[in-house]
Amino acid sequence: MKRKGLPQGYNKRPTADVRFDVSTGALNKWDASIKAATSDEANTINIFDVIGEDYWTGEGWTATRVAGLLRYIGAENDVTVNINSPGGDMFEGLAIYNLLREHKGTVTTKIMGVAASAASVVALGGDTVEIARAGFLMIHNAWILVAGNRNDLRSYADYLEPFDKAMADIYSARSGMSIEEAQALMDAESWIGGSEAIEIGFADSLLAADQVSRDDSESASAAAKLDRALAKSGMPRTERRKLLQEIKGTPSATEEPEDMPSAVSEELTQLSIQLRDVLK
Predict the structure, then answer these.
(1) Residues 277, 47: Cα–Cα separation, whole Å
(2) Which of 79, 138, 177, 273 has its C-alpha lying 20 to 30 A from 195's C-alpha?
(3) What is the pTM for the complete model shown?
(4) Which string of b and e fits 224-260 if b means at least 16 CB within 10 Å?
(5) Domain-wise residue ranges, the chain
(6) Among positive and negative, which fits the CA dihedral 162, 26, 20, 102?
C-alpha cells in the first residue's frame, strides 16, 4: 500500500511522567557515521540522529523541525528523506510519519543504515521506501522508562496499547501482512535486513551502493556522546540525566578551587572511576 492509503498514526501526546527513550539494543547496533553519499541536495531531509529532542545538544528530530523543513521545501514539491536513526520518542516518530503521509508532493524515504523503533515508522511514511543492502529496519513494541507502584505499572501497560496498535496498523497496511503477523514481529523485536524488508513489503527496492557513505568526523558533543555510551551500558535515562548534570556542574581539574574540601575531591575521583568502569 502506498502512502496516501496508509492509516494515520496515533497522535496523543504522552503524559508528563512517561518518557519514550532509545532502546539499548538499537543504540548498540546503530553506526552514527553512516550517511548519504550526497546529503546536501535540494528538497532533502537527513534524519541522522535520534527521534525526539536531544537533552544536551538540543538536536535530534522532532515533528516541529520536520514541519519547518517541509514548509521550506514547499507542499507541492517532492522530498527525499534519508534515514539512519536508532529511534527514540515514539510520539515524535508517529507525528513525523503523519507529516510525511500528508505531504502533497511525492515522498521517497531512504534507509542508509538503521531505521529502528520510532524511525521505522518514519521510514514507512514514503511513497517509495529504499533500503541499503546492509541496512536494517527494527520494529518492536513501544519502549518507555517509567516508575511507580503496581497499579501505576498496570496503567502504563494500558496506556501503551494504542501506540503499539498504531504501529501494527502501519506495518500491516504497508506490507500487506495481517495485524497479528505485525504484532508478532513487534513482540519479538525483529531486525529486518535490506533484502528481507523488500520480501516482506516494508521496502520497495535496494539502494545503490554509491548512495551510502561513512563520515568518520562525527562531531557530537562530549556530553551527548557520554549520554549515549551510558545508555548503551543500560543506565536508565533518569540516572543518566542526574549523573551528567552533576558532571556538568563540576569544576574541571584545572579550575578546582584551592579550598575545595577533600571529601568533595574524593567524591569526584570516585565518580571518574565509576564512569571509567561503566564505559569499559
Answers:
(1) 32
(2) 79
(3) 0.74
(4) bebbbebbbeebebeebbebbeeeeeeeeeeeeeeee
(5) 3-214, 222-278
(6) negative
Distance CA 176, CA 105 (A): 24
Question: Rounded to an integer, what distance in angstroms lies between the CA atom of residue 191 and that of residue 141?
Answer: 13
What topology does CATH give the domain 3-214?
A: 2-enoyl-CoA Hydratase; Chain A, domain 1 (3.90.226)
Tell me the pLDDT tens digit for each residue of 104-160: 999 999 999 999 999 999 999 999 999 999 999 999 998 877 778 888 888 888 888
How far apart are alpha carbons 175 and 203 in whole angstroms? Answer: 8
The single residue listed with the C-alpha cell 531512504 is 110
Helix axes 237-248, 262-278, angle to 10 degrees: 140
Question: Per 3-state DSSP, what percentage of the chain is helix, strand, and coil (rounded to 5)?
Answer: 45, 15, 40
Pull the grid cell for residue 196: 528481507
